[in-house]
């Protein structure tokens, strides 16, 4: 039977990179990059090739192999695996870069900050203290070549080839035989007399002083150069001088050196070192200490190195959330660190945590997630949004905390493009209908209107036709002035989604009613919108062939591109009213704020900042709008205005009542004041609808149902009877003042004359008959509408007010 020897190098679970070696500490070892065959994770591999006649070096390499395998410390190079054969030695460690190469690369990129250097030196001194004080070992090789840096910027102590016991076990220090290393030996060793009395750490502390000099000034040319500190920071110079003193007895213990440098004003007394020390002991810290640390961490992250944030801070943040119950305080630093990640890393590390956070019942976490959604929404795919995030987000619409309701509305601007048909056109519209009609906070009603205008292009054609006109018309009757402005701007921003028939019969009547609004800002926007819509209708009237082209978006499928016109309109409401809401909540924590008294035009707190941005956000002239043709289809005109309220939205209100009954109510006792009167708005009561505002006295003049016109007094001339273009005697006065004056009996019409009133004789009788017929039709129409309303009220209880149509 034949036995075949297996090659241990080939079976080794790690392989060397084909890249050339990076070098390593002076001596027998050569440093290679490598990777683990099973996972592909990067590692560093120190390789020593056994050569004949080099038994002394081979023994040194084997001793280093053994030391590295048995020593475990966060600041000592981490051993992963090893291979020892007759021909070679392989030592696998965490992926690292030699300090000299690292400093050179960072110098080309702008250099290291003192914060990074202070923490790196802190780690090396701490590792040296561990060896000397805890293990009674002398490193005997502290220099630039014995220090390595991992991907997080952490400094690791290696180069354990010449280590020996401080207690004398195993003989004295091994002979190096490498001139590059012997220049770091202290002067008392070069003397050879042994007269100097020294501590066990004296030689290593001298070498530490040489390392500090090289870190700040470059390679050490000779020992005499240590007398000049060079670029060493002033706060470190006194402690450095102690290290390179000629008397070995006065060189401090590594632990005392750290203590001196951490004193107030010391080189290692800074926020970066404190943060790292806390992270090292975070598992044993109290919850209150962790909360305070994470709250203050985000302020410091901007000054910390990017690699440190990605590989050192981020894992601790994720661990704190998963196992430490850190809660919402980790969100701000988590998303700030996330900016340093690429898309793939973000998807792997941040998104799973974010998805899990949305299922939390912690209000603070929910509101912070909503506030910072813009930072991670681009990394969420549509299935994740619809199945794992949106079902939790919609609970915010029913929350008793106004701030959460408002942030939930704002978040829909980001979530809408990723929502499916059912969530966007059915579920979301339920909540928007309820918020716009029943929420006691004016800014939230305003933001709901603004959000609906911005996401209107994502709705399907049937939902747009059913919802937009009714919703914006309802907003124009809101007692909160910015909500009325938002309703007008909503019509303007979605102008391409309406047919010419809707523009003429549904939108313009609503806008015309706002021309007598008590607030001038509302009137101004209404006039602008009216002029724009009229310009469109007039243009289409001049060229009817444009109808198909200008109405192509009316029945088109949902498209993100159609929302471009709404990208900036009324942005002041979403971004600016939030400050108003928070101020109102803080000022009245248990009651909703009173609405502004519109006849006196007071300015609510927080609104002055809105005025400058209102005008530019809505200064859309008719020249920027497409021309549309008036449609003659009026079959749907009688019922479409009320569809927003007539839709069967399911058991939303019952669901809202059950949720509100379980949660702490932040906003009980809300009031809305209009014209000196106060009306209590109860979000839990179905009766508290827009109809309660309609009944208040200050709205009587502006929003009454128009009554049928009375027949003109005897002698009143119709418009067709008056001379609009001819010349009048100068003593006749203002023609409008004489509209009710009776024509003089002696005035005779000449059949053959084209004089002042020639057209009256031809058309007066026919037009009077048409006017009487129109008046009768309007009365019949009014009676039919009253009968329908009575039937609905009897069947459904108190009626919700939709868009009121002008007869």
Structural commentary:
This protein has 807 residues and is α+β, with helices and mostly antiparallel strands. The protein has 32 helices and 12 strands. A 5-stranded antiparallel beta sheet has the order 1-2-3-5-4. A 3-stranded antiparallel beta sheet has the order 6-8-9. A two-stranded antiparallel ribbon has the order 7-10. Strand 2 and strand 3 form a beta hairpin. Helix 18 packs antiparallel against helix 26. The radius of gyration is 41 Å and the shape is elongated. 35% of the residues are buried. About 25% of the residues have low confidence. One of its GO terms (biological process) is intracellular protein localization. GO terms for molecular function: ATP binding; protein kinase activity. Keywords: Coiled coil, Cytoplasm, Cytoskeleton, ER-Golgi transport, Golgi apparatus, Phosphoprotein, Repeat, Transport. Belongs to the protein kinase superfamily.
């Amino acid at each position: 039977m034949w036995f075949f020897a297996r090659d241990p190098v080939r079976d080794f679970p790690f392989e060397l990179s084909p890249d050339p070696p990076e070098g390593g500490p002076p001596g027998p070892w050569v440093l290679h990059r490598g990777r683990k065959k099973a996972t592909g994770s990067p590692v560093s591999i120190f390789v020593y090739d056994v050569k004949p006649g080099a038994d002394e070096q081979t023994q040194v390499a084997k001793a280093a192999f053994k030391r590295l395998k048995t020593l475990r410390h966060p600041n000592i190079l981490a051993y992963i695996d090893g291979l020892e054969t007759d021909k070679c030695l392989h030592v696998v460690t965490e992926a690292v870069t030699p300090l000299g190469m690292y400093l050179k690369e960072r110098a080309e990129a702008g250099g290291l900050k003192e914060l990074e250097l202070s923490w790196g030196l802190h780690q090396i001194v701490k590792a040296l203290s561990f060896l000397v004080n805890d293990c009674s070992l002398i490193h005997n090789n502290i220099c630039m070549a014995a220090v390595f840096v991992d991907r997080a910027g952490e400094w690791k102590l290696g180069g354990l080839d010449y280590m020996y016991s401080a207690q004398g076990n195993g003989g004295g220090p091994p002979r190096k035989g490498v001139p590059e290393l012997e220049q770091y030996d202290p002067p008392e060793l070069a003397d050879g007399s042994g007269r100097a009395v020294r501590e066990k750490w004296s030689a290593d502390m001298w070498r530490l002083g040489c390392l500090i000099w090289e870190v700040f000034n470059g390679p050490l040319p000779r020992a005499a150069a240590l007398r000049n500190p060079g670029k060493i920071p002033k706060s470190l110079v006194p402690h450095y001088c102690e290290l390179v003193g000629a008397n070995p007895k006065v060189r401090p213990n590594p632990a005392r050196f750290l203590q001196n440098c951490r004193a107030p004003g010391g080189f290692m007394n800074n926020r970066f070192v404190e943060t790292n020390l806390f992270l090292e002991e975070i598992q044993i810290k109290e919850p209150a200490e962790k909360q305070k640390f994470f709250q203050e961490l985000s302020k410091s992250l901007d000054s910390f190195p990017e690699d440190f944030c990605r590989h050192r801070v981020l894992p601790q943040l994720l661990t704190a959330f998963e196992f430490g119950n850190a809660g919402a305080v980790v969100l701000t630093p988590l998303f700030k660190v996330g900016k340093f990640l690429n898309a793939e890393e973000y998807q792997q590390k941040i998104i799973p945590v974010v998805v899990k956070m949305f299922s939390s019942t912690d209000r603070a976490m929910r509101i912070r997630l909503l506030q910072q959604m813009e930072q991670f929404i681009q990394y969420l795919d549509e299935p994740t949004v619809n199945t794992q995030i949106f079902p939790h987000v919609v609970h915010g619409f029913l929350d008793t905390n106004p701030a959460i309701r408002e942030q939930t509305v704002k978040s829909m601007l980001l979530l809408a493009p990723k929502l499916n048909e059912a969530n966007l056109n059915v579920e979301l519209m339920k909540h928007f209908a309820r918020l716009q009609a029943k929420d006691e906070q004016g800014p939230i009603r305003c933001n709901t209107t603004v959000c609906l205008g911005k996401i209107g292009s994502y709705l399907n054609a049937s939902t747009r036709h059913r919802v937009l006109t009714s919703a914006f018309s309802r907003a124009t009757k809101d007692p909160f002035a910015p909500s009325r402005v938002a309703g007008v701007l909503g019509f303007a921003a979605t102008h391409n989604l309406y047919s010419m028939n809707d523009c003429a019969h549904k939108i313009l009547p609503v806008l015309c009613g706002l021309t007598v609004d008590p607030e001038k800002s509302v009137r101004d926007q209404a006039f602008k919108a009216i002029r724009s819509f009229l310009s469109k209708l007039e243009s289409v009237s001049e060229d009817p062939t444009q109808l198909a082209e200008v109405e192509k978006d009316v029945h088109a499928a949902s498209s993100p591109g159609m929302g471009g016109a709404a990208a900036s309109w009324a942005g002041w409401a979403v971004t600016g009213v939030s400050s108003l809401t928070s101020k109102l909540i803080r000022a009245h924590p248990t009651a909703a704020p009173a609405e502004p008294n519109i006849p006196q035009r007071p300015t609510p707190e927080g609104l002055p900042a809105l005025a400058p941005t209102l005008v530019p956000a809505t200064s859309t002239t008719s020249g920027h709008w497409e021309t549309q043709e008036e449609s003659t289809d009026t079959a749907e005109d009688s019922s479409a205005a009320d569809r927003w309220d007539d839709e069967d939205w399911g058991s939303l209100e019952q669901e809202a009542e059950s949720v509100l009954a379980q949660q702490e109510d932040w906003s009980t006792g809300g009031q809305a004041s209009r014209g000196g009167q106060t009306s209590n708005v109860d979000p839990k009561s179905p009766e508290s609808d827009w109809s309660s505002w309609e009944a208040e006295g200050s709205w009587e003049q502006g929003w009454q149902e128009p009554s049928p016109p009375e027949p003109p007094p005897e002698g009143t001339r119709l418009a067709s009877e008056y001379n609009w273009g001819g010349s009048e005697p100068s003593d006749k006065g203002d023609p409008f003042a004489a509209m009710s004056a009776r024509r003089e009996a002696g005035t005779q019409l000449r059949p053959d004359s084209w004089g002042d009133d020639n057209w009256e004789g031809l058309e007066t009788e026919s037009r009077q008959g048409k006017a009487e017929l129109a008046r009768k039709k309007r009365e019949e129409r009014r009676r039919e509408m009253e009968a329908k309303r009575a039937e609905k009220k009897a069947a459904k209880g108190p009626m919700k007010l939709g868009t009121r149509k002008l007869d």
